[in-house]
Design the sequence.
């Protein structure tokens, strides 16, 4: 009988050489390229625009991102998890739902723009927000193809698509700013590069509606999507709510330091964890329910731990060295905050894996409960720490709440599934 440690090494080697890591390599490389170009664009924005002009664009883009959260209605996850027998009908129904929902989002965003213009007197951001609503009608023509490509593991093609659009967005922003220093130069590329995503997505995985496949039960898809949407909405509220807690309890100066520490400590890890979740979810759905899916979950957990535990540890331990070099000596004081913030990266990984497992099993209500728990404990811990007046204690409270929520969810959801997986592969003596 093999030694347990040898079995673990055998499984780890298989995971690192398998499709999970190849897919993650494609998405992860695309995310890193996107981040590099984004940094360059940020420097151009800082040098070309005055703070008050940047604020106009930031307000429009923030509201756009908040409304765009509603775009994640969960129908795509239903395409990925559908059986081959029902796939055609699910795709036909999803296409109709996507078009209906796109028009609803346009109406919602235009309503917000009207309130912004006439209720708050912010005419310029309102006009930008109204124009950005035109992004939504571009997407339905490619969303079914996008999720079919994810279902079939076409990760390299999808990664190229995402990276191409993002990099084109950043480059076009920089060029427009150099020629026309205006907040519109920051906003317009979001709309102008949307067709890049559409064209590349439709080429990655061609698809046409099949009238012979019929229509799936739209009520079931809406119920499934509603649970996913609720979970995503709570996650977005968690991501935006921490800034509101800091500025309300400690002021705008503390918010600037917190915002920097959060992005420096979790920016890259958050992108990579998201890429890992995007690649692993279709693999979970493709595995048959029961022991095979639990075995796939175990492989994904092993692969995620092998990647992110060393990455987070190195990032946290070396923060005092790289922060003043990369970001400047005036940010050296924030190195301890960044090191503490890094520890939330592993909690994010656990949360993404838990969410993927629940959605693959069709338990979207439990996924929404998981998001609510994370929102409550993370912002609760942040608020308790912030009331002391110490930004360090506020960050410790946020990270502690995030880790506790992820640990509770993983203990309730992932641990039982991992315990009931297939036994470790036996190796010859």
Sequence:
């Amino acid at each position: 009988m093999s030694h347990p440690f040898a079995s673990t090494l055998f499984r780890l080697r298989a995971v690192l050489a398998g499709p999970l890591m190849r897919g993650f390599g494609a998405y992860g490389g695309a995310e890193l390229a996107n981040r590099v170009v984004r940094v360059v664009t940020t420097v151009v924005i800082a040098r070309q625009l005055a703070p008050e002009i940047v604020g106009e664009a930031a307000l429009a883009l923030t509201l756009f991102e908040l409304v765009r959260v509603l775009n994640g209605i969960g129908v795509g996850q239903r395409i990925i998890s559908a059986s081959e027998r029902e796939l055609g009908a699910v795709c036909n129904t999803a296409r109709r739902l996507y078009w209906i929902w796109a028009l609803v989002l346009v109406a919602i965003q235009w309503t917000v723009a009207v309130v912004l213009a006439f209720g708050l007197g912010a005419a310029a951001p309102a006009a930008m927000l109204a124009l950005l609503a035109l992004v939504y009608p571009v997407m339905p023509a490619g969303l079914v193809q996008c999720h079919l490509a994810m279902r079939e593991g076409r990760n390299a093609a999808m990664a190229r698509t995402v990276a191409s659009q993002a990099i084109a967005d950043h480059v076009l922003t920089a060029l427009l700013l150099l020629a026309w220093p205006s907040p519109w130069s920051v906003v317009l590329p979001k709309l102008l590069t949307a067709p890049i995503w559409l064209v590349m997505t439709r080429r990655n995985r061609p698809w046409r509606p099949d009238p012979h496949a019929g229509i799936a039960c739209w009520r079931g898809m809406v119920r499934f999507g509603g649970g996913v949407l609720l979970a995503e909405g709570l996650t977005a509220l968690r991501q935006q709510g921490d800034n509101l807690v800091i500025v309300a309890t400690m002021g705008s100066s503390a918010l600037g330091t917190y915002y920097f520490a959060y992005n420096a400590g979790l920016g890259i890890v958050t992108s990579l964890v998201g890429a890992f979740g995007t690649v692993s979810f279709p693999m979970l759905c493709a595995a048959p329910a029961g022991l095979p899916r639990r075995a796939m979950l175990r492989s994904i957990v092993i692969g995620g731990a092998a990647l992110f535990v060393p990455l987070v540890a190195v990032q946290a331990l070396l923060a005092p060295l790289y922060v003043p070099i990369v970001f400047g000596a005036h940010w050296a004081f924030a190195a301890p905050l960044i090191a503490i913030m890094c520890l939330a990266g592993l909690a994010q990984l656990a949360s993404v894996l838990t969410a993927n497992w629940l959605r693959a099993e069709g338990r979207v209500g439990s996924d929404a409960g998981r998001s609510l728990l994370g929102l409550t404990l993370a912002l609760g811990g942040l608020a308790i720490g912030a009331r002391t007046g110490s930004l360090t204690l506020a960050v410790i409270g946020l990270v502690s709440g995030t880790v506790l929520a992820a640990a509770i969810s993983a203990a309730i959801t992932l641990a039982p599934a991992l315990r009931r997986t297939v036994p470790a592969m036996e190796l010859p003596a």
User: Anything to note?
Assistant: The longest helix spans residues 84-119. Residues 422-429 have pLDDT under 50 and may be disordered. The two ends are 7 Å apart (CA to CA). Residues 96 and 359 are 22 Å apart (CA to CA).
